[in-house]
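Re-run with default settings, no changes from the original entry. Doing this only to confirm the output is reproducible before filing.
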Amino acid sequence: MAQHDYGNPQPPFSGTQLNTTLRNWRDALHTLHRGASRPSYVQGGMLWIREVSSTNWELTLYDGADDIVIATINPSTNVVTPAGAATPADLETRVAKAGDTMTGALTLSGAPTAANHAATKAYVDAGDNTRVAKAGDTMTGFLTLHADPTAAMHAVTKAYVDAIIGTTGRKLTGVYVFNTTQNWTPPSGTTAMLVWAVGGGGGGGRGGRIVWNVGGGDGGGN
């Protein structure tokens, strides 16, 4: 390393002295004023190298007030690292664009506004509250099914139910058998119906029809 400034030579100044001064100045220029500290003769806009160690040189610009490190040089490996650039150690602490796994939480600036934005926990939780839980839940609105059920455990549509029981009551499409202790109330909206009573038990019985009218009671039988 070399730092030298011959200043303003004053006589008497021998040829030997001049030769030594010029050689020292040449060495300073050729080594970019390399030294452990800023040269005493530094001027604003001057480049110089701070020798931190044998493997760490700092290319420095003096701006008239402060030293600004432009790059770090390792003369052993010939590696130049621009100031502010990430070192290999720094890269290990950053997420790779190609994909990576974070070791801590990532705090986002807000809820997503585009399809491929990362979503916050609050955004997901709010959306989850609008879904029906598989384990059981209570809906706050209607559930529209895509079609009538085709399996025993399928949910049924209103249209499917209405087709079976109608809008005012159940419609019997076959025979309904009662025992002697069973009570049955006709569906709401029924105005008249034919009931066939069959006697049984003991030494005989008789059967007949009973017409049931609105207002209760039978209209006759035999």
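The chain has four helices and six strands. Residues 201-205, 218-222 have pLDDT under 50 and may be disordered.
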